[in-house]
Amino acid sequence: MRSLASIVLAFESIVLALVTPVMISVADIRPAIAVPVCLGLALLAIVSAGLLRFQAGYVLGSVVQVGAVGLGFVVSVMFVLGAFFAAFWVAAIVLGRRIEVAKKAHEAHEAPSS
Fold this sequence. Notes:
Blueprint: H1 2-25, H2 31-50, H3 55-70, H4 77-110
Protein name: DUF4233 domain-containing protein
Organism: Kribbella soli
Transmembrane segments: 6-26, 33-54, 66-95
C-alpha cells in the first residue's frame, strides 16, 4: 500500500509545483500567494510520502488531496486534476490493502507446508 500511495504523492507533488506558474500567469494570482500555496502543497505531498509508514502520512496525504481539489477554485483545471489524483489516492489505498491481505493469505498458506 505504501509504494502505490508514495507514487501518487510523488507525481502529485510535481503537478502541484507546476501549477505555480499557471496560477501566476493565467489566474493572475500574486506570486507571494501562489508560491507558498502551491509549493507548500507540493512539499506537504513529499513529506507525507516519507511518513507513509505511519498513519500520519496517510492523513497528510489526504490533506494534500483536499488542497489539490481546492486549488480548482483558483485554477479551474485543478478540479479535474485534483479529482484524478484523489481517485488515484483512494485506489492506491484500497488496492494496497487488498494486496497486503492477499500477501498475508499467501504467506499463511505457504507456511504450514514448509
